[in-house]
Write a structure and sequence with these properties.
mainly alpha, about 0% strand, about 75% helix, ABC transporter permease
Length: about 250
Amino acid sequence: MTIGLVTEFAKLVHSTMVRVTTILVVLGISLICAAMLFAVHTDDPQLAAKLGPLIDPGGWAGYITVAIQVTGAAGFVGYGVVLSWLFSREFADGTITGLFAIPVSRPAIATAKLVVYLAWGLVTAAALLLALIVLGFISGLGGVPADVVPSMARQFGLSVFTIVLATPAAWAATLGRSVLAGIGTTIGILVLSQVSVIAGSGGWFPFAAPAVWAIHTDIAVTPVQLALVIPVVVLAVALTLHAWHRLQLDR
């Protein structure tokens, strides 16, 4: 297991794709939100309507609300892309054959991939929150009010939920033996999440419930609804490990 962790960590650290995705998730999301702050002072009523929370309630509260909205979608795609790459690169690079010859079981390798991914995701989530805070100060929002701190906690919490909820991409990338299979699954889940929110049932759709909980503080998302995330993630992990256990070179 230790060998697998060291190997997968080295792959992740030296991956250009992971570096680019990290930059897009951390700086991309935070810069988009910060740039929108400069558009607040506008005389265009249509643009003002689109800016929504940045104008009402505005300040740090509106800024973090927008960040949560962007993270819920862009973050999910970013995490899904990295997870898809981690589980499909062996097939794309042709190194899958070598995994059958090393003294480490394939489920152990898959577990190492998931652990490394989780560690990377948590670091990325913390870096994103820090970047949002720094850019908020630079943009002139001033000190952080005490009542905004819970919203920041929800921002980080949503990132964590998003990290673990992207795990079906690992199973899809393994079955499809392609990064596109994982990314396609990620996008499909995101679309279904948006549909569930529009239909008013987002609280009961595990992939949408964390975003509804983080964005709408006035709408009750019960602990039971949030807890539905657990069986979904456990099932996705179990299916991924099972797929790696039954992995064959000839499909």
